[in-house]
Structures are given as C-alpha cells and as structure tokens.
Amino acid sequence: MEKEMKAVRLHAEWDPKPDFKLGFKDVDGCQTYLGSKVWRNPQIKIEQVPVPKPGPGQVLIQVKACGICGSDVHMAQADDDNYIWYPGLTGFPCTLGHELSGIVVEAAPDAYDKTTNRPFKGGEWVCAEEMLWCGSCKPCADGWPNHCERLDEIGFNVDGAFTDYLVLPDRCLWSLNSLRDRYPDEEVFKLGSMVEPTSVAYNAVVERGGGIRPGDDVVICGGGPVGLAACAVLKRQGAARVILSEPEAARAEIGRRLGADIIINPLEEDLTEKVLEYTNGMGASIYLEATGLPEVVYPAIEQAVWEGRTLNSTIVVVARADAKMPVTGEVLQVRRARIVGAQGHSGHGTFPRVIEAMASGMNMLPMITKEIRLDEVPENIVMLRTDRNECKITCIL
Amino acid sequence: MEKEMKAVRLHAEWDPKPDFKLGFKDVDGCQTYLGSKVWRNPQIKIEQVPVPKPGPGQVLIQVKACGICGSDVHMAQADDDNYIWYPGLTGFPCTLGHELSGIVVEAAPDAYDKTTNRPFKGGEWVCAEEMLWCGSCKPCADGWPNHCERLDEIGFNVDGAFTDYLVLPDRCLWSLNSLRDRYPDEEVFKLGSMVEPTSVAYNAVVERGGGIRPGDDVVICGGGPVGLAACAVLKRQGAARVILSEPEAARAEIGRRLGADIIINPLEEDLTEKVLEYTNGMGASIYLEATGLPEVVYPAIEQAVWEGRTLNSTIVVVARADAKMPVTGEVLQVRRARIVGAQGHSGHGTFPRVIEAMASGMNMLPMITKEIRLDEVPENIVMLRTDRNECKITCIL
Amino acid sequence: MEKEMKAVRLHAEWDPKPDFKLGFKDVDGCQTYLGSKVWRNPQIKIEQVPVPKPGPGQVLIQVKACGICGSDVHMAQADDDNYIWYPGLTGFPCTLGHELSGIVVEAAPDAYDKTTNRPFKGGEWVCAEEMLWCGSCKPCADGWPNHCERLDEIGFNVDGAFTDYLVLPDRCLWSLNSLRDRYPDEEVFKLGSMVEPTSVAYNAVVERGGGIRPGDDVVICGGGPVGLAACAVLKRQGAARVILSEPEAARAEIGRRLGADIIINPLEEDLTEKVLEYTNGMGASIYLEATGLPEVVYPAIEQAVWEGRTLNSTIVVVARADAKMPVTGEVLQVRRARIVGAQGHSGHGTFPRVIEAMASGMNMLPMITKEIRLDEVPENIVMLRTDRNECKITCIL
Amino acid sequence: MEKEMKAVRLHAEWDPKPDFKLGFKDVDGCQTYLGSKVWRNPQIKIEQVPVPKPGPGQVLIQVKACGICGSDVHMAQADDDNYIWYPGLTGFPCTLGHELSGIVVEAAPDAYDKTTNRPFKGGEWVCAEEMLWCGSCKPCADGWPNHCERLDEIGFNVDGAFTDYLVLPDRCLWSLNSLRDRYPDEEVFKLGSMVEPTSVAYNAVVERGGGIRPGDDVVICGGGPVGLAACAVLKRQGAARVILSEPEAARAEIGRRLGADIIINPLEEDLTEKVLEYTNGMGASIYLEATGLPEVVYPAIEQAVWEGRTLNSTIVVVARADAKMPVTGEVLQVRRARIVGAQGHSGHGTFPRVIEAMASGMNMLPMITKEIRLDEVPENIVMLRTDRNECKITCIL
Q1: What SS3 string covers chain C?
Q2: Is the ipTM, as predicted for this complex, more than 0.85?
Q3: Min distance A324 CA to chain B CA atoms (Å)
Q4: CA nearest B288: which of B279, B306, B301, B273?
Q5: Is residue C7 within 8 Å of C91, Cβ to Cβ?
Q6: Mean local confidence (pLDDT), A128-140
Q7: Is C74 a catalytic residue?
Q8: Which of A132, A274, A337, C239 could pair covalently with A152 via S-S, beta carbons 3.0-4.6 A apart?
Q9: Confidence of residue C389 (pLDDT cuts 50, 70, 90)
C-alpha cells in the first residue's frame, strides 16, 4: 500500500483574464508563467498525499526544516478580483515550500552528490536550490542557470517541502556536511533552510554586483530577508562599513547582529545625507535596492552616488518591482557607476560558498524569528500578509 | 622679439548668475566648472598671440590638423539670456581646438615620449588627449584619469590648437609614428586629429561597456561622431552585425563606410522591432546611447533587451543629457543586463590602441566631410549651430 | 527490419598495463579515462552497423561533413608495445569522428533547438560540441562544462560521425542556420564541421586568454588547426598584428589567408628577436602555445615578455604536453603577466559566437585542404601519422 | 641657520662589475637599477643632515614610525666580493627607511591631500607609498603605477624615513585619519607604518590574484611579513579556511593571530597532502608563493591543484626569486588554473582600502615584534641578517 503524508498545498482555479494567451511554457489548465493573470480563489489546504518515489537522477528527501518566503504569501493571497498576487511561474495544486533542508532517504543509482561526485547513498544532509534549471537550454549551456528558459521551481510548479518528503533531481542538491563540525544538528537544518535566501543575496551582491574589496563601504536599502542576508555577506567580504537603511527597529536589530555597522531610519533621516556623513563624503561601493520601492529609493541612492566621491559604484536592484527608476545618465558618467539587476541564486559556485561561509562562522540564525510545526504553516502564511515583526518563520519537521 | 601667431580665441564676460557660487576649482573672473552659469556674450575672434614656450615637462607642438567638436560650437553659442550653452569647465579668453595632431618642435629636457620612454628630440608626429589629468589626485592614483579631480582641458581652460603652435605637458601626447607606414603624410595628421573623438567611442564601448566577443551583435543609437566611431570600433572588435540607428541619410552612409552593417531610420521604423528582426529575436550585446535624447531612446532599447533573448547586455550611455531615463529594474533582472555611463578618453591604453587599430586598417577618414583653413574656423563653428550635413570639419594647418 | 549503415569504427583489446587501476568513470572491459594504459592493437574497420534511434532528449542526425582530428590519428596509432597513443577517455569499439555537421532527421519530443528554444522539427542544419557535459556535476552547475566530472565524448566513448547517422543529446547541438545566407549549401556543412576546432581556439584565446582589445598585437606559436583558427579569431577581435610562428610554409600560408599578418619561421629566425622587432620593442598581449613543445617554446615567449614593454600579457597554453615549462616568476612580476591553461570548447557562448562570426565573414574554409569520402577515412587517418602537408581533411557525406 | 637632524644613511662605493653598462635610468657614480652589480663595501652610518624643505607639490613630514624591511637588510649586506646583495634601484648615499608614518609639518601650496582633495594644511597624519611612480610614463598613463618606467623609491634612491623629517611628493601620501577613532595615537602611527607591507600583500592577493569570494579556501606559503599580511587580508575577504605553511612556530603563531585557521609545517608535513585533507579533497582558490623558494614550493602547489577538484585556482608569485618553477601546462588546463606575478603596492585603490580595513578592525599590530629607537636601527638591520625570530622591527620616533 502506498505510504501517505501530510502536505501544505495550494489550490486555485484556472480562470485566465481576457488578455491572457498561453505562452511557451504554459499548459492549459495546469501551469502558467503569469500566475496573477490566471489563478483565482487561492486556498491553502493541508492534505494527505502519497509519498513520492525518486525517478532517474532523482533523490527522495525527508524534510527537516523549511522557511516561509514572501512568494508563498503572495501565491496564497488574492487581490480585489480574487486573482493571486504572485505574478510568476505557477502550477496548481502544488505543495508549497522551497527554503528547505533535509536528509536523503533514497536515491536513484544515477543520482550523484555534487560535493563528492559519488552516487548518493542515503543519509546525506542536504539543502536545495529552488530553481530546477534544465541544464540544456541556451542560458544553461552558456553558464547562466538563473535565466534558464525551461525552468521549473520547487514549491511553485513542482511539489515543495511543507511536507515530510519530496523528490528532487540530484543537480539541485548541496551537502550540508561541512556545517556539522561547528553547529549542533538542529541548527544545521535551520541553517540549511537559510542557504537559499542567503544565496539570493550572495548572488545579488557578489556575483551580479561584482562584490567589494576589503575596506569598501556598502549601503543596503531594505531589511527584508535578502537585504539582511546581504549585510552578513558583505561584512564577510570585508566591508569597512555596512550601512543598513531600514525603518523597523526589530529588523534593524537583526541586521546589526548579522553585520550591519550603521543603521539609517529612512523615515526619519535623509538617506543621502547620512550615507555621505558616515562615509566622510565618499559614498559607497555597492548600493543594494532590496525594498521593492525603487521609485522612492533610487533617487536617494543616485544622489549619494552623485555627491559622493567614490567611483565605480554599483547599484544592484534585487527586489522585484514594476515601478520605473528615474535614472540620470550623467551621474553614471561622472561617477563611472553602473546599475545591474539580480535574480536567482543558482550557479557560479554560490550555494557551496554560502554553505562554507556559514561553516566558517557566518551565522544566519538571527534571521529566524519564529519556529513552527507543519500544521501551523497555513495560518502563518496568512499572518505574514500583514505582519512586519517576524523576519523568517521556519517550519521544523 | 617675441614671435607671434594667429589664434582662434573665445572671449566671454564673467557675469555669474545669482545662484552661482565659486567652487573648488573656480577662479573668480577667470575659470569655472559651470560655464553656462557664468559666461555671457561669447565672441570668437582671430587674434595675434605670442608663440608659447615649453616649461618643465612640456612640449611645443606645431599644429597640423584640428577638428571642430560640438563643445566648440556650444561654448561659442549664446542662449536667450546670452549665457553660453556649454555647461562645463571653461576659462576665457582661451584658444579653442582640442582634436589635434602636430609635430614636436621643442621639448623640455624632462619631457618624455611615452611610446619610446625617451626624451622628445623634436620632429615627432603626435596627437594629444584633450584631458590634462593631474596624475596625483585620488582618481588618478587609483587609475581613473577620466575622473581626475583636478582636471584641465585643452581648448577649454588651457589654450588649444586652432593656431600654429601650442604647449602641452608630455603626459598627454601619443606618437603617430605607426600610422606612417600605411598612410600618406597628410592623412596621418588628419587621422591623428581623429584619435581623440575615436577614443571617446572606444572608451565608451570597449573600456566602459566591456566590449564584445567576436560574433556578438551591437546597436548604436545616434550617428554623431561618437556613434559613428563606435561603429568602426565594434566592427573591428568582431561584431557580427553593427546596427546603426540614425535618421540622417548622409550620417548613415558614413556609418556604413565605417562598419555599420544595418541602418535603422528611427523616425520611420520601430527600433525595437527592427533590432529583434535583424537579430532573429536575440537583441544585442551592447546598446550605445549616443543621441543625447535618452528619454526617447532608452525605452526602445529597454524593450529590445526585454523581448530579446540575449543575456548580459550592456547599455552604455555616452551622450551627455539632463533627461531622466525611465528604467525598469525587472528588465535588468530578467536579462542579466546593466547600464553604465561613459565619459572621457584617457587611460586604460585607449589612445595607443586606437592609433594601432588605425595603423592596421581602421580608417576613420570617412568621418571628415570638410577641410578648412584657420581663417574659416569661426564661421564654421557658427555654421555648425544649425548644419546637420557635415560630420567632422577639420582645420588643416 | 532494422536499417543499416557503414561506419568507421575503432576496435582495440582491453589489456591494462600492470599499474592500471579502474577509476571512477572506468568500466571494466569497456571504457577508461587512461586510453594509452589499457587499449592494445587498435584497428580501424569499416563496418555495417544499425542506424540508431533517438531516446529521450535525443536527436537523430544525418551526417554531412566530418573532419579528421589529431586525436583520431592517435587513437588508431600503436606504440612499440602496441598500446594506443591517445591517453584519454575511450570506450571501444566506437565509431570515430567528432568534428561534424549534419541535418536533423528525427527528434524526441523533448529535444529542443537551443537557438530557437523550440522542439526540433527535423530538417535543421546543425553542428555539435564533441563534449557531452552532464549538466549536473559541480563544474557543470558552476558554469564550467569543459571540466565536467562525468563527461562523455563523441567519437571517443560514444559513437561518432564517420558514418551516415548518429544520435546525440539536444544540448550539444547548435544551429547552422545563420550561415545559409552567406555561403552555398555545401560550404555551410564544411564550415559546420569546422566549428568545433575553431571553438577550441576561441575558447583558448577569448574565454581563457581574456581576449584582446582592438589594436593589440598577438603571437601564435604553432600552425596546427588550433593555432591557425586562433589567427582568424584574434584578427577578428581586432588584432593589429597577428604574428604566426610556424616552420612549414604551407601551414604558414593558410595562416596568412586566415588573418596572420606576419610569419616567423622559428627554425630559421629567433622568435623573441623577431617579435620584438615587429612590435617595436613592445611584445604582444597574447602568446598562444599551440605547438605541443612548451619546453622549447616557453623560454622564447618568456624572453619576449621580459624584454617587451607590454604589461598584462597572457600566455595561453592550449596544446597538451607532459613537458615542464621553466617559468621565471620575476618575469610575471615585472611585466604583470600571467599563464593560463585552456581546454575544451563548450559553454561561455562560444559555439554560437563562432557560428555568427563565420556567418558574418570569418571564413575558415582555407583550413580544409582535402576532401574525402567515407571509404577513404581509414587510410587518411593512417596517412596523417606522418603527413605534414594537409591541414584539415574532411569527409563529405 | 639650517636645521639639522640625525639620519640612518647607507654609503657604498661605485665600483661597477666588468659586465655592467649604464642603463636608461642610471646616473654614473650616483644611481643604478642593478645595485648588486655596482655598489661595494656598504656602510650604515648615523649622520647629521640638514632638514629638507618641500619644493612644488611636496610635503615635509615628521616621521613617527618606520619599519625595517628585508631590502634594508640586503642593501647593507655585502657578498663575498663585498658587493651589496640588493639587486635593484639604488642611489647612495641615501637615508634608509620606507615603511613610514608621520605628521605633515609643512606643505607647498599646490600639495594636495588626496583624501580630501584639499591642500595640506599641516598636522595631517599620513603614511606613504614607497614607490614614487611618475604619473606620466606609459604604464602610469595606462593605470599600472607598480610598473612605472621612471620610478623613484623612498629609502633606495630618494632619502627615506629613518630620520626625523623627510620630504615627499603629495601623490604618495595617504591620510591615517580614519584609524584615529578606533586606535590610540601611538598605535595609529605603528599601524600607519604597516600600511605599506600590508599593501604589498593586498596587491598580490586581491588586485593581482583577483581575490576570493566568501567561503573560498586559501593557502599561503611562507610566513614572512607579506605572507602574514596576506593571511589577514584574505581572512578579511571571507576565506573559510586560511591555511598557512610556515615552519617557524613564532611566525606561525603571528599568522594565527592575524587570521590563519590552519598551520602546516612544511618541514614535517606534506603540503599537498595536508591541503587536500583540510579542504576535503578540494584544494584552494588562491595559493600564494611568499617563500622565495619557488623551485621547492611550486611543485607542491601544483600537485594540490592537480589532485584537488577546485577549478579556477590562482597561483600568485609574490616573493622575488631567480629560480625557475617547473610548470606543467596540463595542470593549468585540466583545472582551469593560472599563475600570476605580483609586484608593488601602488594604485588600484589599495592603500586607502588597507587603511579602511585596518580602521574597521583588521589589526596588523601582532606583526610588530620589537620596537626600537633611531640609534638602534643600524644594529637591528645587521641583526636581521641572521635573526629568524623577529617579524617586524619598528623604529618609533
């Protein structure tokens, strides 16, 4: 008889808006790249589902920890017309949860542990990339898996980790082994669930932003999980001053524990003025836009670039937003500056480096402000629509 | 008795607007960083002036060719309140002309030819950077002379080359020797006068834009001297398709002679659509904004980046303009794209490489559409306020 | 009834030397990473074999052209103990041939054309990477497919292209479509078979060597196929002077047709001295070691770096050789130089760029000095053990 | 009457060996680029000399601290023929000492503080680059001041800092202001004297070696001042494991205090084996050769690169040595590795970043193992010919 397990699953109705057309990766009734144009009346349910079995190249993982992400909230949240907020790739019903760690239970014979280049034997402690890049399309072949043209995503159109077991392809798994020397077991799994969001920040500032050199100053706008993780990553890379702009005191305090040297409250202080004051008129090497309000934040960043004497600043835009940024080319010219966009976390050696950085002391646990059980996931996803106090809520299994 | 010579000099009256304050490099009555806020009633005159003498580290050059630049036009052009158009560093009266080539006549004993690392002996054929970077400030010490904090500029606040002789520091001179094998003498001097504007384009697309790899496609918006030179440089760097967007047929034709494979008339064709059509839906690796109308051009570029499948595109903004560009961060994120600003031409091995590229066949002479004598410089500077037919007008001495 | 076809296949006996141990990827009796330690008494045979069928993600290709590579020669050549010369990954019997072009005949429904990101329909003209990188191991995940830890190779341990049909995974195929506007059909297939060796050169000088900027000088040591292709690639990238060091006049002449400006005969001339003479004492930006005799060539390159005034030179070692190079650290210090190794051709956008460079005029046909039929492949592989006149011998099907 | 001061000065006799010829920068009887070929019978003397006066662009500095460098020892040390050991640029008699910090006493009106871009007023606390790059030669113009073709060097051919006052050009000075918030005054000057040697390490691993990403492992061979400083810099840049290979226990202990996580004793342990053990078979991202015995150390590094699975390793050679390294190109190919040489400390924003890194906690004081007075400098320079216990001996003034 088939084994069963509980899973937090999202259901919604396929009801495309009039202007929607099936796209390349869309499957009628099942899957779309434009979630908010199609899915209506989202409902989170805890259901009994069969424990899956690993196919070729796949691995069965027992989940040990899984964090709630903002996109989980937006998938389950309806707008005034009852369409879901989340605009991206989605295929429902789907088990949610993609910030996961766990233990390998069973593996196909051709499923390999990248860390050892040996087949999985079972018992390995791992975390997972959320992006199931195909490894065959032009971006993947060229080395840009974050821009895979045939992407699947765990917890969005492939069953995720708010459950006991899930099946994943070997290529998205990374060993947590090196964390075990420094941290007790339960912390290893919690840290493991933090690797994905930390890698988003690492990809943004180190891979896309080009990183810094020891002694540089940086400005992080926005103390959400990505901004906070960026504080830790850039402090680790040798920032002299990590300046975090964040109005919420609780968030700012987490930033401080993770590496922020200076906090600016942008509702009470002038960001440009304070950045210039703290940096002795120089400004910063990296500015990270992680607020989602680029139309508000960009002008202040640009002014700091303009008035500061630092050359070669990079403005990294990592938060997703529709709004236009009013960019003055002359500022980029006079200060030799640039603007880059960042998305994803895969490739470029990011996951293994984040794990090694954690293993050598970059402790991301301060980000986890609440631990819950599987049953509590739905209510916490709903609660996060309005809550601003919690940072990362993590389900422990 | 002191030797004299004729020089095309710009005079204007020091009459600062009310909001003007003397800045760091400004000298009351003489020099400012904000020309259009200070100088009134510009007048170009041909005057007799003494032949200068080289001081320590300096070289006396007999001018052989000097091109007219748009900034010459804007320095000599008054707005409705009779203030000059040109907004930058200026110190009047000043002999105009900075796109120059000539022959070394006399040199201080400590004035060295960078090409040979030997003292100048006289007789060397040279061209000059227009930017007299100081070599001592923080940007210069760090390797960014285009952002020198104590800059002087030939033909703006230091006497320039619309005359028979000028004195320049050795550090701004580059030998034209390697051109002499391929080109007749008179062409060497004309090409020499083209090194400066070509270097502005080279700095924009190769140094700041990061260049391309052979087989990439590029889009150049604007067929002014910088845009046209960029066509030649990028074709030289192996562009598969150089796409030039330029409405004027005569400019487009020069672009074609310099290396453009495809011309788009942006007044009659949709830039985005045509770029995607010519590149089989891929878009380009570099987009150069060289029109000065970024608010018009940027949205079309962004749309091509968004719809094209090319990753890692670089949008280089080289034309100076006040207007804001409405930038969508999501486009930079999804396409792994970036925006950079470019200014200047100095440093990074740019001048010597431009000369060697010319010496091995990158012939920029099609850009010179008119040759004039010194006496004709003033009227041609005036004529260029309205003329759109001429590309580069070059004074031959 | 199963369809059959003729194939040029290599047989050899599994007879490991005493010191051989089965390694990670080795399969007893079938496949090894250390060919010359295992395989004895190689024999090339023309045999009847079944036409293969594409499995999931695979494509059936009708071969139109396939070049003979030096490794084909070394796999079929025995040393004094009758072991094969070729030291690398091999699994016999195996159909030889990996420099191929052809037409898609049939494709699995999930086999995609990277160029269009659409499923193959049949009829597409394509070429193939020889390296079947796995897309899942750590190097592949990090973006370094040329260093795949679970590599297969066409014509080495996977059946190759000296036959009528072969089956390949979609991920290794690249469309030749863009060549069809410029070249007649039969030339498209010949050029298609040249994409792989040209990509080895492109990977070496552009990806690994960092490329050049227009106006730089380069030195290519060795006029084998990789060295010659590098002449074309670097001329395309804007080299002012491509200097080719090659003693054989016929090879040198091909180099000239492909882009070499200057030929040095290293048996009659002093390489260092001539390089310095031709570059006015500067030396070159890239030195490519493509002779396989680094112990002879490196000291001459190092001397040119030492005596030349060029900084930041890159010495790229692409030819495989056991011999040690005597490297003087001080030369790398004083000239800010570096040495890099290059292997492979996959990833980094290399294949599609090589195709686009050919499509826009980089014509590699001069490298093909002889065209043969399938029946003639074995005798030509044998002939190439001693022949030094032919450059690339290509089988036309 | 002229003010006088005591100075530690080196005298030697101009007695060129037979094969010596005056070179480009040599001045007969006074100065040479090849010290060990010319200077005989070196003698260190403490003499009375006039306090110098600053000329144009110059600054008079009161010395507060100055470290003894190995080159000070080698300049004052004679070989069996009584020629000095030091092989480089030298002009005697010359006041020694180039690792200096001090206070600006007087400045020419055109001498600027790079940190503020304002004229020096007097009273500024500063340190100095040792290299007086000219700012005008081709390497300086291109942005490579460490390879200046018209270099002068403080304490080698220009009077140095083992005295009360010295005159220096403004361009080589960097403010120590930012250190004053964190450290007591006397430590600021000691740290200031450490900026130069730390910058040599920073230039080697960050600028030339390309640095690391947080989570990478590194191997430092040699616990001299440069190797030890590299431990601190790379730990600061986020190294997971800094592995220091150094046989002397005292040096190793300093390394540990500066950031080394693991010590290997290369006289008792196998470097390759231990590196692979500590890195779980991966090897390191950067290997720094800082021993001066590359012929011994390189083979062990190469073996670690070969056997480790890390790709893209960089081997940085910073110690000066004549010996050849036996380099196997295949290792660089298979592991995508490279070798670079590093010299100097100027440019690239290195000095100001080292100061900011110190100001934010990178404390280099453990390197200073002995503090002395000016009178004691000569005997300590002599003592260091044989002593292996002291790391940095610093003269406090």
Answers
A1: CCCEEEEEEEEEEECCCCCCCCCCCCECCCEECCHHHCEEEEEEEEEEEECCCCCCCEEEEEEEEEECCHHHHHHCCECCCCEECCCCCEECCEECCCEEEEEEEEECCCCEECCCCEECCCCCEEEECCEECCCCCHHHHHCCHHHCCCCEEECCCECCCCECEEEEEHHHEEECHHHCCCCCHHHHHHHHHHHHHHHHHHHHHHHHCCCCCCCCEEEEECCCHHHHHHHHHHHHCCCCEEEEECCCHHHHHHHHHHCCCEEECCCCCCHHHHHHHHCCCCCCCEEEECCCCHHHHHHHHHHHHHHCCCCCCEEEECCCCCCEEEEEHHHHHHCCCEEEECCCCCCCCHHHHHHHHHHCCCCCHHHEEEEECHHHHHHHHHHCCCCCCCCEEEEEC
A2: yes
A3: 5
A4: B301
A5: no
A6: 97
A7: yes
A8: A132
A9: confident
- CB count, 10 Å around CB of C48? 8
Cis upstream peptide for C93 (omega within 30°): yes
**Phi, psi (degrees; rounded to nearest 5) at D102:** -175, -165
Name the residue among D138, D143, D346 with its Cβ closest to that of B117.
D138
Is the separation of the CB atoms in D120 and D59 below 8 Å?
A: yes
Interchain proximity B114–D135, CB inside 8 Å = no
Displacement of CA D272 from its chain's centroid (Å): 28
Q: Which of D117, D170, D346 sits opposite B149 (nearest CB)?
A: D117
In chain B, which stretches have pLDDT less than 70? Answer: 1
Q: In what order do the strands lie in the sheet with B338-341?
A: A262-264, A241-245, A217-221, A286-289, A314-317, A338-341, B338-341, B314-317, B286-289, B217-221, B241-245, B262-264
Cα(C137)–Cα(D309) distance, rounded to whole angstroms? 12
Instruction: Please tell me the total number of residues recorded for chain D in this structure.
Output: 397
Of C134, C201, C218, the residue nearest C353 (C-alpha): C201
Mean pLDDT across chain C, nearest whole number?
Answer: 97
Cβ of B327 and A324 within 8 Å?
Answer: yes
pTM over 0.80: yes
Check CB contact of B351 with chain C, cutoff 8 Å: no
**Active-site residue, from D74, D98, D147, D345:** D74
Judged by DSSP in three states, A122 sits in coil
Task: Confirm or reject contact between A107 and chain B (CB < 8 A).
Answer: no
Catalytic-role residue among D36, D71, D245, D346: D71
Is the minimum CB–CB distance between A115 and chain C shorter than 8 Å?
yes
Inter-chain contact B335–A328, Cβ cutoff 8 Å?
no
Separation of alpha carbons D192 and D279, rounded Å = 35
CA B377/CA B368 separation, integer angstroms: 15
Whole-angstrom distance, CA of residue A70 vs CA of residue A60: 26
Q: Tokens at residue D325, please?
A: 């390294």
Catalytic hit among B36, B71, B199, B346:
B71
Closest CA to A312 of A335, A333, A287: A335
Taking the C-alpha atoms of residue D184 and residue D298, their distance in angstroms, rounded to an integer, is: 42
Residues 6+ away with beta carbon under 8 Å from C184: none
Q: Give me the DSSP letters along B200-252.
A: HHHIIIIIIS----TT-EEEEE--SHHHHHHHHHHHHTT-SEEEEE-S-HHHH
CA distance B156 to B97: 8
Collapse the DSSP code of B380 into the 3-class scheme (helix H, G, I; strand E, B; otherwise coil) and give the result. helix
Q: Is A42 left (phi over 0), alpha (psi -120 to 50) or beta?
A: beta
Q: Is A331 on the interface with B (CB under 8 A)?
A: yes
A149 and C CB contact within 8 Å: yes
| pLDDT at position D1 | 58
- Within 8 A by CB and 6+ apart from D80, the residues are none
The token pair that represents A128 in the structure block? 């997972």
Q: Does the annotation mark D199 as catalytic?
A: no
Mean pLDDT of A60-77: 97
Q: Are D28 and D22 in contact (CB under 8 A)?
A: yes
